[in-house]
Amino acid sequence: METIFLKPSKSAVSDQATGVLTPAFLDALRKGYRMNLSDLACHNAVSNNPPRDLALNRGVSRGDDGHFSHRVESKGITNQKKSGRCWMFAGLNVLRPQVLRDHGMEEFEFSTAYLQFWDKIEKANTYLESIIELRDADFLDRDWQIVNKHPQEDGGWWSFFVDLVEKYGVLPIWAMPETHASEHTATLNEVLDRLLRSRAVRLIDLHSNGTEVDALRAEKNQVLAEVYRLLVLHFGEPPSEFEWRYPVRKHSQSDTDDLSDFQSSENHRLTAPERHTPQSFYKKMINRPLREFVCLYNDPHCELDRHYAFDRARNIFGQECMDFVNIEVATMRDIAKASILANEPLWFAVNMGFDQSPELGLMKHRLYDYETLYGLDLTISKSDRTRFYSGASNHAMVLMGVDLDPGGSPRKWLVENSWGEEKGNKGRWTLHDDWFGEHVYTIVVHRRHVSADILSHFEDKATVLPSWYPSAMGVDSP
Q: What one-character DSSP code corresponds to residue 466?
């Protein structure tokens, strides 16, 4: 039985030239709808149950065997808890498999709190420098609004991660472990926002009284000392040097694949102690130029095969803003597949707001079929989702595997997330290829997997997209 909609009378829509909802039109809406049996059943269902559960499409949520034709081996699932550090966790998780392989280790995790500490210092400096830059701007200026909306937030990009690692190095997690504040950033960010805004007022007042830029920067440095103290209270002070040693297998990997007794003293030995700074530890454990990795984007709303940059998308003042080449999603798939087949995981960013289930560990197009549930056409293209602020990168993870059909085309992808082992399939998701086309926006890969034609676009001057462009300020930002 179809829903009955009666056409409103001419008098009921007589004010359509003004766009005002008249009483007559509202009355016509009421009189023009009659609930049929199908709508009654839907009403009873959605008023007594979570609509998301009712919309779960069982036809697409079952039937997966869970196997992947190729996967990058790693161990351990990280947990960003209640923080927006996905981009940072994803960056470190991309590097971890190589560390495990190269150093014969069974387990290893980098300290995310260490990079987080310096990220907040750098973002505080960038914010205050922006205040100095915009010291004569009107408070309704759009750049001023973007800068002051979140003086201190958690979000970021791959380029933020690279800049931090190259400047500050890395630590093992035990050298600077997580704290409550590192895992639950809302209150800390609120206090930092209040501190930075109050000091920004002081900078503007000093400027209004004729203070020169050099003196403003001297004042800024005093503010950064306050920020440093506040962060030390929450994180502890970052170590500048530490001792490093770790267990390695006495036998070679080829002797046995059974590592269950790795921790037994008969089967491992400790390496000789070494003194390291975070920078020397980075060179020892990673020893790869992160600048050789490039960011590729798929945003159909922007012209393809062009070089772009997001204005103000940086955490470290003085560094370049996040940039990328916009490419076809089919090309992005091919590049991602090549990286996985070369045993190299990928940092990638997606929109997690559509058709993904933390309970099932599944990303599948039309996983939640609201169209059938409500009898509505909800179709909107990827390009229009950008245009109407419904589609943009908001979460970063790691692609760890791919399942190819007999013809070599990807059927699904293995994803390592940073939401702990309690979510997904023990911390991992299966990303079906139809979801890839709809909701994957960004991949970061080594240059060798990218064609010379695409790489040549990075030599072109970047078209700068404004700081208010969707997702410009980074994934997992407020």
A: P
> Which segments of the chain have a pLDDT < 70?
1-16, 63, 251-266, 477-478
* Cα–Cα separations (whole angstroms), residue 178 to 49, 113, 231, 238, 303: 38, 6, 13, 12, 42
Q: In angstroms, rounded to a whole number, what is the distance separating the alpha carbons of residues 469 and 326?
A: 15
Please write the tens of the pLDDT for every residue from 16-42.
Answer: 678 899 999 999 999 999 999 999 999
Is the CATH code 3.90.70.10 the one for domain 60-71+289-465?
Answer: yes
Q: Say if residues 270 and 247 touch (Cβ distance below 8 Å).
A: yes
Q: How many CA atoms lie within 13 A of 342 on its CB side?
A: 15
Beta bridge partners of 440: 350
Beta carbons of 397 and 383 less than 8 angstroms apart: no
- How buried is 23 (Cβ within 10 angstroms: 0-12 exposed, 13-18 middle, 19+ buried)? exposed
The residue extents of the domains of the chain are 1-8+15-42, 60-71+289-465, 107-285
Identify the three-state secondary structure at position 198. Answer: helix
Quick one: how far is CA 207 from the chain centroid?
37
Beta strands 33-34 and 247-249: pairing type? Answer: unpaired
- Determine the residue type at 135: R
- What's at 173, amino acid-wise? I
Q: Do domains 60-71+289-465 and 107-285 have the same CATH topology?
A: yes
Radius of gyration of the chain measured on its C-alpha atoms:
26
Residue in this structure with the two tokens 């495990």, named with its chain if needed: 100
The Cα–Cα gap between 155 and 395 comes to 9
| Global pTM exceeds 0.85 | yes
The amino acid at 420: G
The CATH number of domain 107-285 is 3.90.70.10: yes
Q: Packing angle between helix 112-133 and helix 142-149, nearest 10 degrees?
A: 150
